Amino acid sequence: MCGVALPASGGWRWTRSDHSRRHRRSTAARGDLVRQARKKQGLTLARFGELTGYSAAQISRYERGISPLTDVTVLRRFADALGIPPQALGLTPQPYVRRGRAIGPATAYPRLSGPRVTGTARREGGEDPVRRRKLLTNLAVTAAAATGAPILPTGKAPSENVAVGEVLVARVRDAMLGLHTDIAVPSVAVLHTDLSRAFTDFHACAYASLAVRLPRLICAAHARDGDAGDDRLLVHSYLLVTRMLIKLDEQQLGWMAADRARQAAEAAGRPLLVAEAARQLAVLARKAGWHEQALSIALSAADHPALRGGEPALAAQRGLLVQSAAYTLARTGDAAGMRELTVEAAAIARDLGPSAVLRDHGGGFSPTTVQLHLVSAENSAGDPAAALAAAKAVAPGSLPSTERRARYYTDIATAFARWNRRDECVRALLAAEHHAPEETHARPAVKSLVSGLLISGRTTTELRGLAARVGVLA
Predict the structure, then answer these.
(1) Which has more confidence, 61 or 145?
(2) What pLDDT band is residue 274 in, cutting at 50, 70 and 90?
(3) What is the C-alpha radius of gyration for the chain, rounded to an integer number of angstroms?
(4) 203 and 359 in contact (C-beta within 8 Å)?
(5) How confident is the model at residue 228 (pLDDT cuts 50, 70, 90)?
(6) Angle between helix 271-287 and 291-302 (nearest 10)
């Protein structure tokens, strides 16, 4: 079941789309003004980039309107470098400064206070609310995890795999709110070992193991936050948590986790981790339908001078951010822009070589993973034929993890579903299930696909069985 063969109105009304078109025209006009002023002064893209701190590619995107020219900091740098009146770019005058304080609109990103991880559990009716969660009774691996032993596949029934995603979210939420009071805080060395095992679980799509490790890591990392040599533990824990919450479509909690990751990364002074937090915020913005903001977050982070060092990890992170921007353009229907940015990401990957970089916090970046990302992007752009053609160039065995292989088969299933090729869609989903049963049974995206198949045509024994295993009534 694992093989999947790929084929060679009346009155005028103001709407959000009207607003979006007007906004795009506005940012395109600013880009055109910048381009004219730059050329009038005889500045090349590269030279202008040196003056303002951005790459030639990023400035070109701003000038052509691919990147929305809305960030105040970027606009002020361009206005200052070219002598453009601030008002011409839609800027307000600089705020007055009184007694060392700027008087004007607040621009700082809101900060969330860190959670307390001890002494905060509430009792209602004499009973711990966490204990009342019936889903937690399915988590029989907790005792083994408390010893720090590796957590192995438990041989759960498919119905338990459906519940484990809900269990994971519930436990992570409680840990983020500081409701776990019974978690011992081990040494830093033990915590880093546990973090490595959590990454292994993520790559293996072992959700039951993650439902134990991630809450423990969050609580312990908060308890040890500030300890010498431990500034990355909290960041990595929240970055991993955010990726899981995005997969499980828990956007509200995902925003909270991503913001905490960003704050911790900035406090630790880790540019690579700050950039990864920005990428995850861009993903969440895209999922919320805030495409202009998602594009701005991803491309601004990609062009940050801190990612311009010679380290392969920095270049790979820049590539991941460009990929994220490409996916956002696909969601807006801009297939040409998506492909242009994908070519840019692919060029970065080729320079780095065939081995995957950033496997842990980025899912892996290489020519193969860029091609895998193109499959998803073509699907989002509404071209399943192009998605399947892109999938032909990916050898599943060359992907860096089980999690990436599961994504490959799920993306193929999505393309077949869009093309109304139901039997091939089911076969692709069964292949994803074979590689990653816990992820396939728990992900909302898979449930949505299966539900669509059930209501859109005839059902088969295979489809009904799959529907039962993912928790969708057949």
Answers:
(1) 61
(2) very high
(3) 24
(4) yes
(5) low
(6) 160
Q: How confident is the model at residue 1 (pLDDT cuts 50, 70, 90)?
A: very low
Find out whether 194 and 237 touch, Cβ atoms under 8 Å: no
Over residues 30-61, the pLDDT tens digits come to 888 999 999 988 999 999 988 888 888 889 98
Q: Higher pLDDT residue, 206 or 95?
A: 206
State residue 102 phi and psi, 5-degree precision. -75, 130
Q: How does pLDDT run across 404-449, given as a tens digit for each residue?
A: 999 999 999 999 999 999 999 999 999 999 999 999 999 999 999 9
Specify the CATH number of the domain 20-93.
1.10.260.40
Return mean pLDDT, the chain: 81
| Start and end residues for every CATH 1.10.260.40 domain found in the chain | 20-93
